[in-house]
Amino acid sequence: MTSTATRAKTPTATPRPPARVRSNIARTPRTFYWMVVPAVVIFFALHTIPVLSGMFFSLTNYAGYGTWDLVGFSNYINLFQDDRVLNSYGFTFGFAIVSTLLVNVIALAIALGLNSKIKFQAAFRGVFFIPYVLAILIIGYVFNYLFANSFPAIFTALGLPGLSDNLLASPDFAWIGIVITTVWQAAAFNVILYLAGLQTISADLYEAAAIDGASGWRRFRSITFPLIGAYFTINMVLSFKSFLQVFDQIVALTAGGPGTSTESIALVIFRGGFQGGEYGYQMANAVVYLFVIIIVSFLQLRILQRREASFS
Amino acid sequence: MTDTLTQTSAPLPETPDAPTRAPRTRRRLDGGNGGTNWWLTALIAVCSLTVLIPLYFTVVTALKTPDQLGGTGFELPTSIRWENFADAYQLTNFPRALMNTALITVGAVFLTLLTNSLVAYAIARNMHKKFFKGLYFYFLAAIFVPFPIIMLPVVKETAMLGIDTPVGLILLYTVYGLSFNIFIFVAYINSIPVELEEAARLDGASTWMVFWKVIFPLLSPMNATVGILTCVWAWNDFLLPLVVLSDPSARTLPLAQFIFQGQFNTNYPVAFASYLMALAPLLVVYVIAQKWVVSGVTRGSVK
Known about the structure:
heterodimer, A: 312 residues, mainly alpha, MetI-like fold, 14 helices, 0% strand, disordered N terminus, B: 303 residues, 16 helices
């Protein structure tokens, strides 16, 4: 504030002395600190402190209430012998990999379609984007009814009794229902991102490729895909990361069942931590999960960026 | 742009390849910008049905009487029971939940726009300073922190601080959105020439005034983007209200659907009426402001 005031009073001889102004800015008015400090304090209190306290309690036998003792790394050792936890990692990763691939392939395909010479382009774009504004929990309830009642009735009517069971009631296939619901909801957002990427590509490039006689697939591989590589990378990383945190749709579709076959990591932490008296233990789970997410995100970035580079 | 169409045949195996290619080639020979690809239009139309059919299903189910529920459920209702909506309205205390959700969403959007842009401005203009650069990476790092690790401790903390309320939720959305918002705000602010601010400073404007009078108005496209993303997130979020809110009367719309699920159990039309009422507000806003919403989200991704 003070520095601003003095600057205001400084008589400016020449209309615009650039060097002088720059040196004033380099001094950093104190106001800039006032702009960030409250945010940093609140962010630290509501984000960093929970993370740190979580890490601390992962070393205790805290149940979420009452007294606790430090137990060293025994929570971490127990995690790796806990079938329920290991199962949740297996399910969550399988689900996230399949969903990420499907969402990105489908969204890219739809975006390519929407970006070409079709009628009612704006209207279709509007339709494909609708699921983005709908709560996945509620969509989950709707799909739950579809899987339990409508699809079996349709398959029976089509004379396919083999498919007429409730998908969500099968321990082996319930995850497919969760993937379908997730893809239905998540593709919308990715369509918009890919469409934004496609619109940055100049039509001249395609004209040139067409003159050279490049086929459609060839043009996709050599022009479109490399040019939207950055979008592909970021979409893969972000969707994978968000699918690893899957929670809402599982609550709505299977509640983790049948048995514990569709329990995600987030659901296990939620249940164990809030209802099972496993606060300390589930915090250890969450810490492992944090490191898994960090490692996976960086690996993905590295691999996908290298691919991007080798394309061009 | 014109010629992307054959590429769709690649990722979509069921596309009839030959028919799509033929008209395209002809068009190119004619000199380019000619006709519409009707095959592709039809294909896109069929794909769009996958989005529309579950929505249609929700609407017709919400209008039926329980005894019309048999079969596939896609049939139109033979007689409409509007009372489903009245029942759901009362059962879930809909006006209360709607009010809570609306207040939390509006509060989160306003607080996010006012504060996150300000922080991003201070960081963007002082990136050459160690302190601000450090902050930038401190905030960005939080993008990689999954919510479940915060979930259990933050419930204890909000209860202790007495902010296990809608006001607390507004604060949490503002704080947890900060990482991503700073990322896109900073990128945008970097594209605004500093000369604009220098001119204002020479006229005697303080840093605050420069921000509010010069920078904030210039940020309006990004404000729209961040506003939309925050609005959709806060409106539809389930997990944070589920764990943070302690008072049952503070329930949000998704939370109400979850809580009353057991009571809907036997009466699907009332449940679907309730779902529809919970989905409708944002859906209506989207339909009205569709162009604006789509371009807002698009802008966020290009930056």
